[in-house]
Amino acid sequence: MNKMDALLDILSKIYQILVLVYNNKFHGNLAFDEDPQMDRQDVKDYLGISESTYKRKVKDGKLKPMKLPGGDKFYKSELLAEYKQSKRRGRI
Questions:
Q1: CA–CA separation, 81 vs 77, rounded Å?
Q2: Which residues have CB under 8 Å from 68's CB, separation 6+?
Q3: What is the pLDDT of residues 5-60, one digit of tens each?
Q4: Residues 57, 32: contact at Cβ < 8 Å?
Q5: Phi, psi for residue 68 in degrees, rounded to 5
Q6: How far is Cα 71 from Cα 2, in angstroms, rounded to an integer?
C-alpha cells in the first residue's frame, strides 16, 4: 500500500465517523444503509397528511427534517411515532 492509498483509507474512515456523529447529534439516532431517506412528498404520502398538516408538524417540532439543498429529508425510522399516530387516526 503506497502513501496515497493509506491516506485515502484514513480519510474514508474519518468520513464514516463524522457521518455517524452528525446523525447521532442532530437526529437522535444512527442512520443505516437500509434506512431509506424520504423527501417531503414521500413523508406526506407515507403519513397520509396534507401540506398544511406537514408544515404545522414541522413548526410544532413533531417532524424534524434535515434541511438540505434539495429540500427537506427524513429517515424513515425517525417517522415511526408519527406513522403510528396517522394509523391510529385512520389516515393510512
A1: 9
A2: none
A3: 888 889 988 888 877 766 655 555 555 556 788 999 999 999 999 999 999 999 99
A4: no
A5: -120, 160
A6: 40
Residues 74-87 pLDDT 10s: 988 888 888 888 88
The 3-state secondary structure of the chain, one letter per residue = CCHHHHHHHHHHHHHHHHHHHHHHHHHCCCCCCCCCEEEHHHHHHHHCCCHHHHHHHHHHCCCCCEEECCEEEEEHHHHHHHHHHHHHCCCC
The per-residue pLDDT for 90 is: 83
Task: Give the per-residue pLDDT at 28.
Answer: 54
Cell numbers representing residue 25 in the block: 447529534
